[in-house]
Fold this sequence. Notes:
Blueprint: H1 20-33, H2 46-53, H3 57-69, E1 73-76, E2 80-83, E3 88-91, H4 97-103, E4 108-119, H5 122-128, E5 135-145, E6 148-158, H6 165-168, H7 173-179, E7 186-195, H8 198-203, E8 211-220, E9 226-235, E10 239-242
Parallel strand pairs: 3-10
Antiparallel strand pairs: 1-2, 4-5, 5-6, 6-9, 7-8, 8-9
Amino acid sequence: MSETPAVIDIDLDRSSPVPLYFQISEPIARAITSGTLAPGTRLEDELSMSRRLNISRPTARQALQRLVDRGLLTRRRGVGTIVAPAHVHRPMELTSLHSDLVKAGHSVTTVVINYSEHPASEEEAEHLEVATDTPIVSITRLRLTDDEPIALMHNLIPADIAPSREELESKGLYDLLREHHVSPNNARQTISARNATAKEAEILDDKRGVALLSAQRTSYDNTGRVIEYGDHIYRASRYTFETMLFSQ
Length: 248
């Protein structure tokens, strides 16, 4: 990331009915979508912008916030306003998020927030289709792409096939299961939308109530055994599911 904030030339028409914040945000948006401003580029702050363009600070703040709301900019404490990473488009296939991101050319980091082996509760046993008190592993991971939090993932796995905490910090779950001679064969998945809680927003470095994609997945091997249950949330501003549809 450049030490000197990027500045986009903007010509304002103060006689136009188009709001000034819109006249400011659109040239910046075009520079981002065209690649002129690369992901990670730091922009001038609202105070600098207001002085340079001779506008009020609230107008500059509104222009930048519009771009944040569109997912084109992000604000980081102690860093400033930067161009957001490219939106992640993920195919609807039985693959791990880690593998999909690596294949798409992103740098990937995984933080294992929780790793716990314990007897399955009644609810956990129901998810994994096992008897209550069966040994299972519960894991919670934060996935970052290009140093930007993108997903918070909670998984339940039978203890006899669960990868270690250290393994999960470096590879995707499905890749590790295959290394353990467990082959994901099919899955049942439900995708919905909801708003982030205060705790989720803090972990994902976003604002409270921001839109999230939520996915619950139960995966099976070729014998019909449940090999993992996942309850994942994704930042909707950074993440999209894609699927192919066929006529019959």
